[in-house]
Amino acid sequence: MTVFITGASGWIGRHTVDELLAHGYDVAGLARSDASAQALEAKGAKVVRGDLDDLDSLKRGAADAEAVIHLANKHDFGNQAETNRAERTAVETLLGELEGSGRGFLIAAGVAGLAQGRPATESDPSPFSGPEAPRGGTENLALEYVDCGVRAISLRFSPTTHGHGDHGFISIIAQAAQRTGVSGYIGDGSHGWAACGVEDTAVMIRLGLEMAPSGALLHAVAETSVPTKAIAEAIGAGLKLPVESIDPANAGEQFGFLGAFFGMDLSATSVATRELLDWAPTGPTLVEDIAAGAYFEV
């Protein structure tokens, strides 16, 4: 099977490429730079040159594939409207190419914002619809194509997909600690984040490609809720910095744009996903990765 992956050189994408190649798949990855193209070729993957704004490259990649895994996103937190627009347009383009074919379309989404006061589950529908919604409402857009001959599957990632080399949210929190001299958590730090190691996430993506039915909502969650205070304590221990509670009013000063998210409970379960895919995460926990120096290497 040939699989086209957008975001193939990204954090989750490159591990997904490795996982699929190791299991005999032919992989074609979207690459916008020479360095990304060379890295994919060195692994034995094919290269489709282009990016999310090059809609012809998306059409070419999807046309030649038996399944598409869409992981790319601009992640421009300073211009969320442009990020949402680009995501919506790219997904519309890919779905248009796949419509009526019965081929698979696995799309990156998240567990954040699905539930309040309890961990999110796979039975929780996404409240984000329409072009102005986060990620352009593309999870719901993709699911609309289940009745249009597309095997659409949502890949809902944890707020932290962690590991050595991660430059995501936990890295930003660690950088904030280095900048301010304090490893902070917001309020009493009892609210938690779901978490999953990047290699376990890549395995879940492969199993979803192989086994999940059309319309499935999959949760890449290994830990339901890691208390934010425990995250701050692990970072403080690694950097030898004091650990302190941050008043919610000062969260932006400590964490920048991430302050709003670090103060939220973003917990989730993956019971249904594990049962459906026979998926059992085996990698290190978030705190174990922090303790092992995954976020202090630069």
TrEMBL record:
Stretches the record annotates as Disordered: 116-136
Domain NAD-dependent epimerase/dehydratase, chain residue ranges per copy: 3-211
GO cellular component terms listed in the entry, alphabetical order: cytoplasm
Provenance organism: Frondihabitans australicus
InterPro entries recorded: Epimerase_deHydtase, NAD(P)-bd_dom_sf, NAD(P)-dependent_oxidoreduct
Gene Ontology molecular function terms on file: aldehyde dehydrogenase (NAD+) activity
The protein's name in its UniProt record: Nucleoside-diphosphate-sugar epimerase
